Amino acid sequence: MLSLMSEPTETRRERAARRAGEFPPAPEPLPRPVLDSHTHLDITVSEAGVPGGGPSDDPIGTAITVAAKVGVDRLVQVGVDVASSRWGADIAEAYPAVLATVALHPNEAPRLADLDEALREIESLAARDRVRGIGETGMDFFRTGDEGRAAQETSFRAHIAIAKRYGRTLVIHDRDAHADVLRILDDEGAPDTVVLHCFSGDAEFARECVRRGYLLSFAGTVTFGSATALRAAAALTPLDQILVETDAPYLTPTPHRGRPNASYLIPLTVRALAQTTGSDLDELCAAISATGDRAFGPW
User: Fold this and answer.
1) What burial class does residue 22 get, using C-beta atoms within 10 Å of its C-beta: 0-12 exposed, 13-18 middle, 19+ buried?
2) Does a cis peptide bond (omega within 30 degrees of 0) precede residue 136?
3) For residue 189, which of 170, 176, 207 has the smallest C-alpha distance?
4) What is the pLDDT of residues 234-261, one digit of tens each?
5) Cys bridge to 35: 108, 153, 288, 292, which one at CB 3.0-4.6 A?
6) What is the pLDDT of the chain when averaged over all its residues?
7) Which helix (H) or strand (E) element contains residue 293?
8) Sorting pLDDT into bands at 50, 70 and 90, what band is 3?
9) Whether the Cβ atoms of residue 118 and residue 104 lie closer than 8 Å to each other
10) Distance between CA atoms of 226 and 221, rounded to whole angstroms?
11) Separation CA 237–CA 100 (nearest Å)
């Protein structure tokens, strides 16, 4: 078994403590398989434990098995720095149900002493066959202030170029930066496939993304009671431009907010999306699955 990432930092331990508690029970299985288009298996296992409960000598395999039992048969493991990107690429080669993306998270870019060297490392990983996406990259104006935005933009533009050179899907992290994300994509020219990870915009922003042909990936946030604007965005998104994700171990869907998230909880978000979009559940699952294969597959 491939080793997990290094032990969590103190900050991660503190975050894990805030999510303390057992994983929620498994939801009712979906009528047909879908994918989790964005998860962090390394952080999930390191901070929250093994989905399904109990110790395991193969925590990644266990997480995959537990997800498959409820109809989540494919996972996209997402990199946020050089180390996690390398780990994800290795995991994708070891487990047929997993594909990987590689990137420097936008909040990581301003912290790096040598951004160019880190970008070269990401590009070297982008060439690997089981790496199918470049991300999560983008802009984040919530956690990074004005002093870090130039580095974020430089990194984002470099990731766009890597995605186009290698024909990879671009996976975007956008927090409080909608206009700048679109500006940079328009300036650089977007890759053939763009995914707005954990879509957080309103209906107006969704229309702009849909018009450009981007894919909108909805997380557990769409189930939150306060997410009226997000549900309005989902309701106008064509089914063939919708993906679903966990961003595990974060953003656990209702009714389990505050407990650890994992890929096996995707059915809760899919059912909420079916209700929001007025779609037949089977039809929505089929559309999500086909879009996932178009963006990342074949597995």
Assistant:
1) exposed
2) yes
3) 170
4) 999 999 999 999 999 999 999 999 999 9
5) 292
6) 93
7) helix 281-296
8) low
9) yes
10) 9
11) 25
Is residue 198 within 8 A of residue 245, CB to CB? The reply is yes
Burial state string for 178-195 with b = 16 or more CB within 10 A and e = fewer than 16: bebbbebbeebebbebbb
Q: Which two tokens stand for residue 73?
A: 């048969």
Residue type for 161, please? A
Identify the structural domains of the chain with CATH numbers, from first to last. Answer: 42-296 (3.20.20.140)
The token pair that represents 39 in the structure block: 């998860």
CB count in 10 Å sphere of residue 294:
12
Residue 4 per-residue DSSP state = P
The CA–CA distances, whole Å, from 22 to 53, 54, 161, 194, 250 equal: 8, 10, 41, 34, 14
Structure-token pair, residue 151: 């580095």
∠240-263-90 over CA atoms, to 5°? Answer: 95
DSSP structure string for 24-43: PPP-PPPSS-EEEEEE-HHH
